[in-house]
Amino acid sequence: MNLSGVGRRYGLTGPWVLRDVDLDVPAGTLVRVEGANGSGKSTLLRLVAGIDAPSAGRITGRPPRTAYVPERFPAALPFTASAYLLHLGRVHGLGRREAAARAAAWLERFGAGAHARTPLAELSKGTGQKVAVAQALMADPDLLVLDEAWTGLDAAARAELDRAVGERVAAGGAVVFVDHDPRRLAGAADAVHAVSGGRVAPRATGPDSVLVGPDTFPTGPDSVLVGLTAPDAPDGLTGHTARSDTYGSGPSVRVTASGGRLPDGPLPGRPAREDGPGGSVTFTVPAAHSDALLRELLTSTPAWHIHRVDPATTTSRTP
Ligand SMILES: Nc1ncnc2c1ncn2[C@@H]1O[C@H](COP(=O)(O)OP(=O)(O)OP(=O)(O)O)[C@@H](O)[C@H]1O
């Protein structure tokens, strides 16, 4: 995929967080993104994953099967770990049996099999992060975007994630990642891009190329948010593309919620809205935007109470 002249700012008049970004992410490559806190790494990764749209420029060629692990986990979702993975597997386009099998296999692989029936809200941060990573990997994505996905994982799970990343690249997928530990996959990256001053610039790669010093190591596990970009059904089951500016038929998600306040601006993915009984509202949004929508609803003041999250078959866009 390719980013050409991409810029991003929050709000119409906000400062440009990123400007004039030209970036190639070829298939079968491992790409590291690095930079200081607040430089715009997560912003760049959200654009790459397609859960956020550029304010300027063009993004083309994003693989249909894209999966994303963002920094924070919506632990308030009313699911057990396996039910959540099953749901996301269905959103990724998997059949029920296949989704259940893959969910179980990935939980087992990350040492979280015993927590399959634990409600998300009761998971430890590290186990929640294992679920976050499992939801992305179970899609066999052609583009995997990992925003500090190792944070909070125990040593065995970190090593397992390293292996899984290697497998994705070996299978011809692209992996784009941010991690504050400069030793993470050291020397394995095919390209390293540094974000600084709103610009993204390539720099030489190699075992000795380290921009982020040891003093920037995370001091503890951050809270994590499971990302769901899951834009496409695998094996060409649908023709939906996860372009942020492209809607139509394709995987979409219905979120039923109540009690919160809507933001002044548009909601992520501009969901269709349907008022229900008891003040509840059902938002229907393309699957690629459902994570951003959930995050917006859960972090609004007052926060929305999420009743249900269901796959839907079609998406309509409000004008
Ligand atoms: N939703 C948002 N609304 C307004 N500003 C935002 C939003 N998200 C990020 N920003 C701003 O964009 C800038 C870059 O943030 P971003 O999270 O992309 O940085 P980062 O490099 O990932 O930081 P860190 O290393 O601390 O995770 C910051 O100034 C941040 O405040």
TrEMBL record:
Region (Disordered): 232-280
GO molecular function: ATP binding
Pfam families in the cross-refs: ABC_tran
Origin: domain of life: Bacteria
Gene3D superfamilies referenced in this protein's UniProt entry, alphabetically: P-loop containing nucleotide triphosphate hydrolases
UniProt entry keywords in alphabetical sequence: ATP-binding, Nucleotide-binding, Transport
Start and end residues of each ABC transporter domain: 1-222
Protein name stated in the entry: ATP-binding cassette domain-containing protein
Organism: Streptomyces lavendulocolor
